[in-house]
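Ticket closed. Logging final result for Pilus assembly protein CpaD.
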Amino acid sequence: MLPHLSPLQGRLAALALLALPLSACMADKSVTGSTYPRDYRERHPIVLKDAPRSLDVFTAGAALDDRQRDDVRAFAAEYLRSGNGPITAQIPAGSPGAHRTFQAVRAALAEGGLPGTAIAVSSYQPADPVLASPIRLSYAGMRAQVASKCGLWPQDLGVTDVAFNIRNEPYWNLGCSMQNNVAAQVADPVDLVRGRSEGRPDTIRRAKVIESIRQGKDPSTQYRQDGQNRINSTVAN
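Final structure:
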């Protein structure tokens, strides 16, 4: 049997009952509430890291074909631009033509501007002698990478997390793949940190635009859509 409550006690009891759902919401927020930034660039920042870069050169006797020679030259140029430490050349053990191919690789690296002192030579044991065992060139270079890992879903996108759905916040994984694509496609990772200095201006075009403005003419270029554009290929000295 419930005891008799005064009007004041009844009102206090009613307020306590009303506060129970609110306390449950607060508990849900503290446990499952969003603790990550709303901006995808802050959730998945692009950072610069030293990461290994490698090139496999398959043994082809005492000379390299044009394709592999160009690959080695480009690898040397990339190393000179962003490499750290020496280039490591791992030669497969037990391969009769590997050392002759390596001499061609060393020559191609020199053609790309890389001195022979920058190459550290070692050997490795192929896992399967039947398969082709390449000469492995590698170095550590600066690369742009996303600091976080994609494919994580800390929040349930279904109906189980009602509080998260009501807040209408972006889910954690949103924007992660796009940031990875940007990091993979950037030509120079330093561009993500600071802009480049101003390049050489087109002085001829600049003088022409200024002269047109002085004469009260439209300095913009008028392009025709009928394919009858005429391009002056002569350049005044």
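The longest helix spans residues 7-32. No further action required.
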